[in-house]
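Example (one chain per record):
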Amino acid sequence: MNPVKALEKHGQAVWLDFLARGFVAKGDLKKLIDTDGVKGVTSNPSIFEKAISSSDEYDGPIGSALKNGDRPVAELFEHVAIEDIQHAADVLRPVYDELKGDDGFVSLEVSPYLAMDTKGTIAEAERLWKHVHRKNLMVKVPATPEGLPAIQHLIGEGISINITLLFSQKTYIEVAEAYLDGLEKYVAGGGDPSHVASVASFFVSRIDSAVDKQLDEKIARANDPSEKERLAALKGKVAIANAKLAYQDYKRLFSGARWEKLTAKGARPQRLLWASTGTKNKDYSDVLYVEELIGPNTVNTVPPATLDAFRDHGTPRDSLEENIEDAKRVLAELEQSGISLDAITTELVKDGVKLFADAADKLYGAVAHKRATVLGHGIDAQELALGAGITKAVEKATEDWRAAATIRRLWQRDTSVWTGTDENKWLGWLTSAAAADIADYEDFAQRVKGQKFSDAVVLGMGGSSLGPEVLAETFAKKAGFPRLHVLDSTDPAQVRAMEKTVDIAKTLFIVSSKSGGTTEPNVMKDYFFARVAKAIGAAKAGHRFIAVTDPGSSLEKVATQQGFARIFHGDPTIGGRYSVLSPFGLVPAAAAGIDLRTVLKHTLSMMRSCGPDVPPHENPGVQLGLAMGLAGLEGRDKVTILSSNKIADFGAWAEQLIAESTGKDGKGLIPIDGESLGDPSLYGSDRFFIDLRTEGESDAAHDAKLAALEKAGHPVVRIVLQSIEHIGQEFFRFELATAVAGSVLGINPFNQPDVEAAKIKTRELTAAFEKSGTLPAETPVISTAQADIYTDGRNAADLRNAGANGDLGSWLKAHLGRSHSGDYVALLAYIERDTAHIDSLQHMRLAVRDKRRVATCAEFGPRFLHSTGQAYKGGPDSGVFLQITSDDARDLAVPGQKASFGVIKAAQARGDFDVLTDRGRRALRVHLKGDLTAGLKMLDVAIQNALN
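Predicted structure:
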């Protein structure tokens, strides 16, 4: 007779430790049921991973699932796994019915990531039970300390449970007690326990592997031959002895008055199931853990190879209750030998949790890869060419992150991912896109459209303005909707230029400030509110204003008082630079008629690709973040962002995100935006290039230069957006990558400790102006007809020692001469940001780059104070700063204040410069006199001469 089939006569059921879609669909499971009497199937992440990654049979089901809409990787796996479990359960249902519910079960495991999470285990088990919707399902729950209360709770709800990762007799007793307690609770609540089944999966061969290793170590150290022989005799015996004694506990626990009371209600005993029965030691019989553990009312779950082996040469016998006293002796001798079985089984549980989590990582990685393949261009492509050194470092960090579950901990808001301070309070951006109320934004958009506004102007700074600016520059004006503009300056000419650009009477103003206390949006609001009131009447002015601010802010109070048309609340757990996918970016987008439903749909695909269930090696945000952070640690800290024409403004947003998040504590990445590509000889070994473009945009000359940089050994990341509607994917990718880079650098990427310093200096200066009507006097180090030069005493002494004397050129030469390999030069201009001035600064910066071979920044104040200013003050001391200020041709009053726009801007420039010099930075300020255009030309010539 078939030895496998013969096990039925000994009261033992055989379950198969294997499952795959084709195996069930082709009838192979049914064949084993018929020929071998197989009565159940168990699955786990490792089994599913092998099935999914080693063949293409899951490509179709995954593709079909995604046709109904994208979904997270864990949800996608669960969808196909549930289908498999249902199919297997249906094949086994006749067994279940024939045996009246005693057998015929299929097991599906809760996520191994929940092994230490009681509530999470309960919630997932309940969901799986509901979704599989088969009476002959068992949900697998591990016998961890956190799993035990979950087991009791779930049994108490009438859910059949397979308890896994069980190694010790002590824990087995706790598991059985949890089952009994759960049944009693279920019965007390009126439940019928005859519908509840359970097995306690007692792992076997892993015990011998661990014990034998320690025995071999003791044998090697023993000198007495008889002692060596005694120790050797214990090898391969402990696991079976342990299991036999557990079976004795089973017989005791499921007998007596307590159990009889439950059986009278129809309860079934929780059977012992022998798991991990494939032989791992080749010196032992390949059917050892089947032949020696045969007994009534037990289950042996075997992998296919063991099943085949036992069918071929197994010998069934009632072995489970043989030599019980010998089993006790084996365990006693083991303890006398100084080997603690309790310690071993405790470690095996920990190892088992880790092994299952490792298998889940592989599984989710395989599913993530297939999802990405199916979605194709639905996810923006990312290619990393990092060079051998950084590639190796990224590979190691990727494995470290996987082993430490760091991406899952990041999504769980675990502060230990960073510095262990308050990072958990600033992670609302992880889910802001998913939480967006699209219907409300669409309703708002239609209301805006209905009022026939010609323009919409965002009044904000930093995170409140840079994200909306990307949207305004990237998306063309939508028919019927206002044209979107952004004003983020206190420069009088720039404020006046915005006023001339729009029709005040037909413009919607969006006042955007998280705290409500930021100077610039407040004075801009005061100015334009007065202009609107003059144009359409004070009573109606508020109807043309929208506020986006955090709940309870001073802006909310003002908006209420002034009758704003609407107040949108931001999420207090999202910092400004991470807020573009929250109301701070979505309200301006809606006002401009941008199709948010489509943008957010694409965004969510990237969010899922970067999710907690996507292992680091398949996670594009983690990969980019690790590359940025590790390159930074190796000195490649100048993150040079290259954006194609259609998305040219993206770098200005990414610049703030990277600089303000990482530039602190003397560490950080310095973003370089807007610096056109040059020959490889112009770059030092401090560069890290990120190239972004949309599909179909081609620039052969640019591509050739980028390829040359890669060939020269510079790390290059290439990202291709399928279309501009995918811009949200890049917002999210870069947000996650920056958070990951912050972890690598060992900083808190969500605070900005040095931004406030400049604000304090500015407030001191404006307060002095309000008192005296003038800013405090300052003395230039030299003064010429065209410009005054300012710096502090330390910088002045250093520059004079380097040759600075009585003319501007000598000071510029000495100052720029202080930039060396690994440094960067930043031009910080407190002037109107218009095309002509941008071009002027570009010409200057490229001249510096080409002559000094250093990275360059061209920034406009006060805008950059809310962006890169944090890194300039708090990041690495590698910056050489040239601040540019000028006389304002025409100032502009701020309603209700003494201080004008020009005065506020001047105070901001001086406050910023004072903090730079207080921090010991290499800084020089050039104040241009008279006509600004002429002054910039003069400065450009002076810089060229200084460099030559």
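Caption: The chain is about 50% helix and 15% strand.
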